[in-house]
């Protein structure tokens, strides 16, 4: 089974202090039999364009194994945002855009975030939104408003509410067809609830931290899903969503 990890970071997080290198990512892929990773910068104090460039180099070094995702601060000017996003999506061929309401210190409802959704529409890529920790901006329900305004854009609720707000993530998925759930850090029984509520075709796997890769894999394996269902979550859903 060609497992795709949809949530991997390169670099150092300003929140957790955790640092992940190229070697860490590649080693874990071998160890846990991960075929492909979607890699983005951390919410970080490092210069984001240089992290994007590093990720681009990885995508060239490991084609079809490493894919990039852009995480540009929506507080920069519209021109600067669009310049950076265009480099990432057009020149580098990145597969998604990240909005980190905690890392970027912004509500998904802010008019400043419209340029994220517009870019996602223009480049036909999904928007990944961090949810759970870092409230009020990271509440899953806040994503419903842009999801309704941009019905042709797909939104991924990263961490699907981070355990505490998981029911709210489920409500968001139930009310918006264009919302996908990625349940890293959520308890196993809530993952079953998500599958039941949203349908298995709207669930993807992400690890967030290298040390969390085996944990997230084990969670899905504990749910008594068939091999076909596991392959759908681990491979087919992300492949379709990110157009890999
Ligand atoms: Zn993350």
TrEMBL record:
Which keywords accompany this UniProt record?
Lyase
**Domain named Amidohydrolase-related: which ranges?**
59-244
Q: Which SUPFAM superfamilies match?
A: Metallo-dependent hydrolases
**Zinc-finger is among the record's keywords:** no
Keyword Translocase attached: no
**A molecular-function term among this protein's GO annotations:** carboxy-lyase activity
PANTHER family attached here?
2-AMINO-3-CARBOXYLMUCONATE-6-SEMIALDEHYDE DECARBOXYLASE
Name of the protein in question: Amidohydrolase-related domain-containing protein
């Amino acid at each position: 089974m060609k497992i795709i990890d949809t949530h991997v970071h390169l670099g150092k997080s300003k929140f957790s202090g955790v640092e992940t290198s190229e070697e860490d990512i590649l080693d874990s892929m071998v160890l846990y039999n991960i075929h492909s990773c979607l890699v983005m910068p951390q919410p970080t104090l490092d210069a984001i364009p240089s992290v994007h460039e590093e990720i681009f180099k990885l995508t060239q070094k490991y084609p079809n194994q490493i894919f990039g995702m852009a995480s540009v601060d929506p507080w920069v000017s519209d021109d600067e945002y669009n310049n950076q996003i265009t480099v990432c999506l057009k020149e580098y061929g990145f597969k998604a855009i990240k909005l980190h309401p905690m890392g970027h210190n912004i509500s998904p409802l802010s008019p400043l975030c419209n340029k994220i959704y517009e870019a996602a529409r223009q480049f036909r890529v999904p928007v990944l939104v961090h949810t759970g920790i870092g409230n009020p901006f990271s509440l899953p329900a806040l994503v419903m408003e842009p999801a309704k305004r941009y019905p042709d854009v797909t939104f991924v609720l990263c961490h699907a509410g981070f355990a505490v707000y998981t029911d709210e993530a489920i409500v968001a998925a139930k009310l918006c067809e264009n919302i996908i759930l990625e349940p890293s850090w959520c308890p196993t029984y809530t993952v079953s609830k998500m599958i039941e509520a949203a349908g298995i075709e709207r669930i993807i796997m992400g690890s967030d931290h290298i040390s969390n890769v085996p944990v997230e894999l084990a969670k899905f394996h504990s749910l008594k899903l068939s091999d076909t269902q596991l392959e759908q979550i681990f491979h087919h859903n992300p492949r379709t969503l990110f157009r890999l």
